[in-house]
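Students often ask what a holo structure prediction actually looks like on paper. The answer is less mysterious than it sounds. You provide the chain, you provide the ligand, and the output is a string of discrete structure tokens encoding the 3D arrangement of the protein together with magnesium ion.
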Amino acid sequence: VNRAKRTGRTEIYQSQIFALARRQFGIETELRRAIDTGRMMLHYQPICDLATGRVVSFEALARWRNEAGQEIPPSEFIPVAEESGLIVPLGRWAIEEAAKTLSLWDRGGEAAQGVKLAVNLSAIQLQRDDVPQLLQDTLSRYALGGDRITLELTESAIVSDPDRITKLMHALKEIGATLAMDDFGTGYSNLAYLQRLPIDVLKIDRSFVAGMLADRDKIAIVRAVLSLAQALGMATTAEGIETNELAQTLAALGCTYGQGFLYARPLAPNAAYQFLLDRNA
Ligand code: C2E
Ligand code: MG
Ligand code: MG
Ligand code: MG
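The corresponding structure tokens follow.
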């Protein structure tokens, strides 16, 4: 009886793995096509100066509506893109798209001129592609300064190949880009990298920010990150700000920038540009 049970379970398990693999392969095939055919979009979420409320930048976030018309969230397709290597063309596309959007906004007048766009870089993309060269080429083609781009990296990028990543980050600084450590506090890494690497901004993960007003431990972590960043001369961005009270508390604690649904959800390019005009008027 035991054996039969075990065999049955193994079969169920295997069929689940096959179903998963099929689904994964389906996503992969369609994802490849989506990048080539313009089904992938970038939406832009404003990041505001907490002291003045002005928009200082937007984070570019990939949005994908598949051929069946469903929105597939990045939490689903980014891992597939990383496993399949598609993250390289996807990452290239995102830098191109962000630069194109910036140059379009610049043509609209003064409003966007000091505004940056932040692009997320996957650890895998950093390993497999020459991102500094790519960024330099793209910026030149659009006649944009390097100071218009922020690159968001995660701790996993640093852990994977510290020497290579150190050179790479210095090369990106050379171009003038701003470097932000994304999801700070959620990875497993040696904090020594903070003094070694040219990081400009720590992004405090939403998991610490969102519930912090009702949770002493979370607020303690947020305070600690803020004072760490201050001591190291880095700016800070709090993610996941959904209420005014949270924005005010973070501003009082000395956090530099804020991002979250309080200000806006990630917006289609035109809506983001309109948001910028309204907010910074
Ligand atoms: P992330 O870089 O940490 O981006 C912030 C995520 O938090 C976004 O989710 C954003 O929509 C969400 N968010 C912002 N404010 C709030 C809020 O107030 N409340 C809540 N509940 N959520 C908020 P999204 O767009 O689903 O992206 C998830 C992750 O996927 C990103 O996390 C990033 O790691 C990755 N990702 C998205 N686009 C790209 C891309 O173009 N390239 C790469 N490599 N990764 C990307
Ligand atoms: Mg990010
Ligand atoms: Mg983040
Ligand atoms: Mg995050």
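Strands lie at 40-49, 55-65, 71-72, 116-120, 149-153, 178-184, 201-204, 235-238, 257-259.
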